[in-house]
Every structure is written in C-alpha cells, then in structure tokens.
Specification:
The protein has about 180 residues and is an all-alpha fold. Helix content is about 80%, strand content about 0%. The protein is built from six helices and two strands, in the order ααααααββ.
C-alpha cells in the first residue's frame, strides 16, 4: 500500500471513529431517542428481508415452498410496518428480545467457563456470564419501563467501543497479509 492510500485510510478511520464516538455519546445521553431510531432501523431491515422472501418465493419449486416463502415474507413485512408505524411499541418489543438474548448469552458464557475454568484468565467468562445475567435480570424485572433506556444505552455503548477501536486502529502499524504497513 502506498503512503498516500495509507494516509487517506487512516484519516477516514479517525473520522469514522470520531463520528461513532459522537453517536455513542448522543445515544447514551438520549437513550429513548436512540431506541426509537434503532426500532425504525430494524424495521427497515426486516422490511427488506420480507421483500427478499417475497421475491425469492417465485424462484422456488412447488406450491408448498412458494407458499411458505410468501407467508414468511408477509410476516416480515407486517412486523416491519408495525415497527416503523409504532416505533415506541417496537422499542418495547426490542427491549424484551434484547433481554432474552443477553440472558441466553450469559448462560452460554457460564457454560463456557465450566468447560475452560482451569485455563488462565477463564474467570472472564464467569464475569461476563454473571454480568450478562444481571443485566438481563435488570431489563426483565423493570420491563417495559426499561425500554426507556436499555436499547439506546446499549447501542450507545456499542458505538463508543466501535469509535474507540476505529481511533486506535490507525495508531498501530497495519499488518495486512503479514506485511507491516
């Protein structure tokens, strides 16, 4: 990679990092609005997936396969429209799905700890599992009120970490295919 391309790549990485940090701070500062935005965004993603199922249905062979894809597509489209037209209800639903996901992830982390507990630093799986279960419990026990903060705050934290990663990436020498940059 030439020097100009490397410099341009680093500039874009830093710019993206700053944008992600700002978005992360705003999401944490206004988690309700970030949750609504996430609900609408997921609604659009689900809508595109539903349309893809409907289009794909016509390439299937057999009435049952076509019908199945059409039904799946319709369910996706209806869910997407519901999320986009009722974003507050979408955030409430996303919060519940998020709590279930975090709880399952916590159980898996505890199971992983049980498997690797004798290894060095395995305790981090235990810590991750416990924190995940506590967070899931906090969301569950306060649901639907937790919808006011959970999705937006967690999206914000994710954006912050992504921003920090993008900012630190250009500070290290790039290694692409074993060649230092």
């Amino acid at each position: 990679m030439n020097q100009s391309a490397s410099s341009s790549s680093r500039t874009w990485s830093i710019l993206l990092g700053v944008v992600l940090l700002i978005a992360g701070f705003l999401s944490i500062a206004a988690p309700w609005f970030a949750g609504i935005a996430a609900s609408v965004f997921f609604g659009w993603l689900i809508l595109f997936a539903g349309i893809a199922h409907l289009v794909y249905a016509w390439s299937e062979r057999g009435a049952v396969a076509v019908l199945w894809q059409v039904l799946i597509g319709i369910v996706y489209v209806v869910a997407a429209l519901w999320m986009m037209l009722r974003p507050v209800a979408g955030v409430v639903a996303l919060t519940l799905v998020l709590a279930v996901y975090i709880a399952i992830e916590g159980v898996f982390e505890l199971a992983m700890f049980a498997v690797v507990r004798r290894r060095r630093r395995a305790v981090w799986f235990l810590v991750d599992g416990i924190i995940s279960l506590l967070l899931a419990g906090l969301i569950f026990f306060h649901w639907p009120a937790s919808s006011l903060w959970a999705v937006g705050t967690l999206v914000g934290v994710s954006l912050l970490f992504s921003g920090f990663a993008r900012l630190t990436l250009p500070m290290r020498p790039a290694i692409v295919a074993g060649v230092p940059g």
